[in-house]
Design goal:
Layout (H helix, E strand, L loop, with lengths): L1 H171 L10 E7 L6 H12 L3 E7 L13 H10 L5 E2 L6 H10 L3 E4 L20 E4 L18 H11 L2 E4 L2 H11 L4 E3 L3 H8 L12 E6 L14 H14 L3 E5 L4 H12 L1 H16 L3 E3 L5 H7 L2 E4 L3 H5 L7 E5 L8 H6 L4 E4 L3 H12 L7 H11 L5 H12 L3
Parallel strand pairs: 1-2, 1-4, 2-3, 4-5, 5-6, 6-7, 8-9, 8-11, 9-10, 11-12, 12-13
Helix pairs in contact: 1-4, 2-7, 2-16, 8-10, 9-10
């Protein structure tokens, strides 16, 4: 069974192979044809693919080329953009620099303007403040002046009241009573620096029961001065001297003149023969309601009569000496000089009160150093032409300043003639540059440790304490000889000549030309180092000439009493 099955299976396999072979034989050409077609197709496809590959390669190459072109264009664009950016940055930097410079210039100009504005504001603020302070000070000064005037008026009114009561009391005394009235004496003081010429007379009158004494301070104006002022200085000086007084504070003095007439003084002492020195109310003509007496502020006249067309002071002195009851002088020689110069018929020899004051003065030096040598320097006021022409301050102040700086082991005390302040007022007005130089001198003078300035009188005690005098003045040339120590007179060429008394006094001083400051310094050092003064013996003889009488105050009071019948 099994074999039959195997045979059938083999036959079937055979038929199947035959069938398959037949099919194969039939299909083989088709297959080969198909394969050829497929081969052709594959070849065509391959060619297409190759073409496509070539195209792709070409496209890629073109694309790369375009990419390169694009990249190059892009790079060029970027480079140009970069160049533009760089240019823009450079321009921006330039513009920024220009803008910064312009801004800085603007800021600088703004700063400059701001600084200028601040300075102007400060200046204006300072000016406004100064103006406000000045206005306030003027108001305070006016209030103070009004208050002072009120006080002085009250004082004088009280004095008038007392005086009137006294006169009424004397008038009611009669019958068996004694009608012995007092002599009312009025001292008008403007020059506190020479109060010593009247102080002894004033104190002698206070002690004498026959005199009723009134003293008043007033303003003053020295030669070359521009206004009346300094009553406060006179007031303070009188206070310091212990002199009870009333104050005349108005600039022209007419208010006080009315009061003075109500006081009805019998005697008036004025310190100066020149009307211009004091307020106009107290001129010679306005004071003629009382008897005028005069004690010259200088001990004696040392100069010849001057050309009256050149200098009006002699004219004023002549008129005044014709109006006074008596001029009290040192001795017969001085009396003869007054009579010859002013044709004065009422000159009385009494000695001079200042001589007594000089002899009584005690040495006192206002600089507190350990220096043993002390120099007193007293410059005159006549630095301009036309008033004796003695002053040398403008040419000698700086050399003397240098001398003081170089001589630290000596003291230098400046005691100016009070009229020099008036000359500085004129200098400030006429020559501000020269005035600034003077101001600089005083600033440097005050800075030195061995220098000082004596203000508002009181020079006699310093004179007594000093070791040497430097001066271009007049009065001190005689007065300092009481100290019997060296005098160095700085002589200005062309000054008014000395008269016979001045020539006699000149034997007591050493003369140095104002143009020879080296010699002045040599002489100061010579005396500082112990050198002897060949003029000392002449000074002793001159002092004997100046002290022939003494007791001037008592002599003056005796003459006044005689004039009033006592």
């Amino acid at each position: 069974m099994k074999d039959i099955k195997n045979q059938k299976s083999a036959a079937m396999r055979h038929r199947l192979r035959t069938w398959l072979k037949t099919i194969y034989m039939r299909l083989s050409p088709l297959y080969r044809r198909q394969c050829a077609v497929e081969h052709q197709i594959n070849t065509a496809v391959q060619q297409v693919l190759d073409r496509i590959g070539v195209i792709e390669t070409t496209l890629k190459e073109n694309e790369n080329r375009r990419q390169d072109i694009a990249n190059a264009a892009l790079q060029q664009a970027l480079d140009r953009i970069g160049s533009v950016e760089t240019t823009l940055k450079e321009n921006e930097s330039k513009w920024q620099d220009i803008a910064n410079v312009a801004l800085q210039q603007t800021l600088d100009r703004i700063g400059s303007v701001e600084t200028t504005l601040k300075e102007q504001l400060k200046e204006h603020e300072s000016r406004w403040r100064d103006q406000a302070n000045a206005a306030l000070q003027q108001m305070l000064n006016r209030l103070g002046a009004a208050d002072l005037r009120l006080k002085t008026m009250n004082q004088t009114i009280n004095m008038v009241s007392v005086k009137t009561s006294t006169l009424n009391l004397h008038a009611t005394r009669g019958g068996g009573g004694v009608n012995r009235r007092t002599i009312t004496v009025f001292f008008l003081v403007h020059n506190i620096e020479v109060w010593s010429s009247l102080d002894g007379v004033y104190r002698a009158m206070l002690k004498d029961g026959l005199f009723s004494v009134i003293v008043a301070s007033c303003h003053r104006k020295y030669p070359s001065g521009t206004s009346y002022h300094d009553e406060d200085v006179v007031h303070e000086g009188l206070q310091k001297a212990g002199v009870h007084h009333i104050r005349f504070v108005s600039e022209d003095g007419y208010e006080e003149l009315t009061i003075l007439k109500r006081l009805r003084p019998d005697v008036i002492f004025r310190q100066s023969p020149w009307d211009n020195d004091i307020p106009p109310a107290f001129s010679r003509e306005n004071l003629m309601f009382a008897r005028l007496y005069y004690v010259p502020y200088e001990i004696m006249l040392l100069l010849i009569d001057t050309d009256k067309n050149k200098n009006e002071n002699e004219k004023f002195m002549t008129n005044y000496h014709h109006s006074v009851e008596h001029t009290f002088v040192l001795n017969e020689t001085v009396k003869q000089e007054y009579e010859d110069r002013y044709a004065a018929a009422s000159v009385a020899v009494t000695d001079h009160p200042r001589v007594d004051e000089i002899l009584r003065a005690k040495p006192e030096w206002p600089l507190y150093t350990n220096n043993a040598f002390r120099v007193l320097w007293s410059p005159h006021h006549s630095i301009f032409d036309g008033w004796y022409d003695f002053g040398t301050f403008l040419t000698t102040c700086e050399p003397i300043l240098a001398m003081a700086a170089d001589t630290a082991d000596a003291d230098f005390l400046l005691a100016m003639h009070p009229g020099l302040l008036g000359s500085f007022e004129r200098l400030e007005k006429d020559n501000p540059k020269e005035y600034a130089r003077v101001q600089h001198f005083f600033a440097e003078w005050e800075r030195l440790p061995n220098t000082g300035t004596l203000r508002h009188g009181g020079y006699m005690t310093a004179m007594k304490a000093s070791d040497l005098l430097i001066t271009d003045g007049i009065s001190l040339l005689a007065e300092y000889q009481f100290v019997t120590k060296p005098i160095l007179f700085i002589e200005r060429e062309g000054h008014t000549e000395f008269n016979s008394i001045g020539k006699r006094m000149s034997a007591g001083w050493n003369t140095v030309a104002s143009t020879d400051m080296d010699t002045l310094k040599e002489m100061v050092l010579y005396f500082k180092n112990g050198g002897t003064d060949s003029h000392r013996d002449a000074q002793i003889k001159n002092v004997e000439f100046l002290t022939q009488h003494l007791n001037a105050a008592e002599n003056i009071l005796h003459i006044i009493k005689q004039d009033f019948g006592f």
